[in-house]
Amino acid sequence: MPRIAFAANPGEVGILTTSFVPPYPPRPAEPLRPIAALRMARRNFLAVFDEKCFEYQFFSARILNRQLFVCNSPETVAQTFIALHDSFERKTPQMRHALTPLLGDGLFVSDGETWKQRRRIVAPIVHASRLSLFAPIMVEAAAETAERWAKLPPSAPIDALREMATLTAEIICRAVFGPRLGSEHANTIVASFSEYQRLVGQLDLAYLLGLPDWVPRFHAPSIRRAARQIHRVLDDIIHETTANSLAWTWYLLSQAPEVEARLHAELLQVLGARLPTLADVPQLVYTRAVFDEAIRLYPPVPVLGRQAMHGETIRERPIPVGSLLLVVPWLLHRHRLLWERPDHFVPDRFLPENAGARERYSYVPFSVGPRVCAGQAFGQAEAILCIATLAQSARLQLAAGAVVEPVCRLTLRPGDALPMTVHRRD
Ligand code: HEM
Q1: Which CATH superfamily hosts domain 92-310+355-424?
Q2: What average pLDDT does the chain have?
Q3: Ligand 1 closest atom vs CA 175
Q4: Helix (H, G, I), strand (E, B) or coil at 171
Q5: Are 217 and 226 in contact (CB under 8 A)?
């Protein structure tokens, strides 16, 4: 496999001067023994991968009675998630265990015909073609956060993770339900819901949200419970991804002043003092590159799992029925054969002039194939518009003494909180 070479001009883009290596969990020199690996996985799943895992292209392990294969090259990712897509299902026992109580048998954890049906309903709703409806909502919500920050005293402490979770929750709720709402505004939810249902015609919203059957539908008396449930579903699964990635972006910017300065310069050049619009997104190339690099280093969904329904062969190795197949963006995005300086924070690698150097399927933060993230365009536009809006008026610095450590449970987060301080930009 070819290594990526940069077409960048070092003098101009400063690619060789970015020396910041953001934190990652310790990597054992040798594979951990099964019991130690299981114990470690419970604490931080990312810490089970030893040094060699960042070089292997396809490897296997046995955990208890289950055979596990890690597809760790663009070719094996494409085979598993695209070519042999129909032979592997999403609903691995792990996924079922973790997600079913939250999502029931919704789009995220369904397979086969049920998934196809639900995907056909859900995908158009958050499709790129509807971004012109959503972008003003994204900017408005981000601008409100910026205004709130501007009223804080100098160097005010915030939890950037929580701030981003609140912001992205607000955006998806306004995008889905229309007007502003909070969990206490159950009536608003219901009213907006019917409006929404009218808009999308035949859509079964219970399917869209993956609500379990026991959740009361909207004509049922227990509206508040349903509203809370919706909020929880939206918050926990869809928000967490964008919220985590934004939190990581603020952290990375705070540690790399030269990257932050270039981002500010781009905002000034493209936007001046006005707020961004959807039309500005294609011009904000460096802002996008910073975000793309943030989710390369810290993919919000760092492990993707499938279960083999039919016996298959990958790289001449038989894959028995019932085996677990993993694509681990955490490994693939830091693979030594695919990336130059894989652990460094180098947004320039995502500038358009360097795109040709990257191998297809070496970068999969939104997954690939038929089950690719349905909200990819939404999430990307949201991230760029939020970063641009907030960075126009504020800088975030890591709070003194704060220790940032990537922790993977269901998603990859910078710990349980990200303590930062807010500083006004003139
Ligand atoms: C940075 C933000 C985001 C990232 C990195 C991300 C990533 C992912 C990943 C990795 C998957 C799993 C694909 C697989 O198992 O192969 C997924 C699925 C999904 N995502 Fe996202 N996501 C993000 C934001 C969003 C947003 C904002 C929405 C909705 C507005 C969304 C809606 C969905 C849906 C509906 C699925 C299930 C797709 C299916 O099973 O067919 N995502 N996402």
Answers
A1: Cytochrome P450 (1.10.630.10)
A2: 81
A3: 30
A4: helix
A5: yes
